[in-house]
Each structure stands twice: as C-alpha cells, then as structure tokens.
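Bench notes, afternoon.
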Amino acid sequence: MCARSSLNWLVHALAEAALPEVREDLSGVLADRYAIERVVGRGGMATVYRARDLRHDSTVAVKVLQPEISAFLGFARFAREIQVTARLHHPNILPVLDSGRSGNLEYYVTPFIEGESLAARITREQQLPVDDAIDLACEVADALACAHDQGLVHRDIKPGNILLAHGHAIVSDFGIARIVGTSGDSRLTESGIALG
C-alpha cells in the first residue's frame, strides 16, 4: 500500500470511528428525518455524511460544522454559508434542501451526488479530454456567473469543490463566499484563520 493510500485509509478510519458519537449527537432533530450512514468527506470546517432522507426515501448529504470550529468562529460563518447557498438556483450549483441545529451541532442538507469530484477524476485520468475540459469549464463558469449576478464571489473554486454528476459539473462549498459590496464582512475572518 503506497503512502497516499495509507494516509487516505487512516483518515477514513478515524472519521468512521467518530461516526457513532455524531450519530448520538445528531439523534435529536435528525432521528425522525435523516439516518446517518457514513462519512464521505472531511474538510477544515465541516464533515459531510451520506444519509437517508426518511421522509422522501432519498439519499442526501448532511454537512455538519465541527463543534470546535463552531465554538471558535461561532455559528455566524456556517449560517452565512447556508443562507448564501440556499439563495442560489442554478443547475450547476449544489442546492440546499434543509438546515438546522441539533444540540451543539449545526448542519445543512443537500442532494447526495453519486459521482466523484473533479479532483478525483483528474487524479485518476491525469489529463481530461479537451472536449470534456471545455464543457466542464463552461458549466463552472456559468454557475459562477450566476453567483456573481447575485453579488457572490466563491473564493475557493478548485477541483475538489466541483462535483461530477452524470458528466456535468456541480459547484459546491460556498463556505467562504464573499458578498460583494457588504460592510462588516471582514469580521468573519478576523480570527487569524486563513480562508480562501
């Protein structure tokens, strides 16, 4: 097993080890609505879980802000991500389906994308066919133009934040989006944490 595979396995194992704790913490408001299945991603601010929407019998992604980040930054940034993302309606932007708080855990729910990220595809293929690269770039540009039309700048566009669904790009993770022209935005990043 190569070093990268070993590291990926270790990260996944550690994330899975924390799952029972999260299941217990999320059991409040989520128990009658979502059944948490497994960890599918972990970033600097949040963990994403694959879950079953019990009401609609569909697969969803539940993004949960890490409690230590919530305590340090406060809920303001995560609430802002939810609000910013929920107001974007575009076929190439991952929509928000639900959001809320369970105990000390803040979360929001999106459709679960069965495909892979653009980063994973690039790692696997090394180089995309030119036509595919152009099509994906156009879809991402169109999604970002929609956000820009609403005064939002993503600030963290990268292959890992572009999901691929049936060959189409879906832009996700508006967590550090900046609302252009608003005052007081800098308060959310004065903690010394580098964003973007």
